[in-house]
Amino acid sequence: MKEIQRVSPVVFKSTPLKTEQRDNWEVVMEYSGEGDGPYLVDLSHRPRFDLQDSNLAAKKPFGMGIPETPGDCVLENGFLANRMNGTQVSLYNLDGDDTATMPDESEYTDVTEATLCVALIGKNVFSICEKLTALDFMYPKKKAPFLFQGPFSHVPCQIVTMNKEGENSGLILTCSRGYGRDMIDSISHAGEEFGLKPAGESMFTSWIKGL
Hints:
Strand content: 35-45%
Strand order of the largest sheet: 10-11-12-9-3-13
Largest sheet: 6 strands, mixed
Helix content: 10-25%
Order of helices and strands: EEEEEEEEEHEEEHEH
Number of helices: 3
């Protein structure tokens, strides 16, 4: 039986230089002409899960503790947990164990195929974002990582500020898969004046390991 090829909702107008096949995804590790930043990286192939339970304090997904306060996030061993509200947490496997699978409990839902996920990393990323949303990803009273849920380019999104420090700045954004083309077009257009370029997963992996 032929396996179904999984296709990212993100399409970049750049030439891949290095790719890998992973869990039926074609993952671009490096693009031509990536430059020196800022970068836009497709992470839609990275596993993402939704956890809903009335007693989240009792849960330890992937062995990590869940943030107690909505808007707070925890990055641990390559896994990101974002507290959304009193009963819901989003979980991203950003650079964790690739053999890790969704816990076999009814409270978990795999949302990887239903959403897009991109990272904006490097210098001037927040200047780019200022053109697309009124949300303050440099909010001084919040320590990174932290979550905002709101409009980005008029689309409901989850956006996590991962780092606020200069050329190591970056955020991760997810939204419904159906907005993929328009979201990438909007971000790319907003980033033109700052030299925003698509980059492969290798760039993101190097960046996140430095956090």
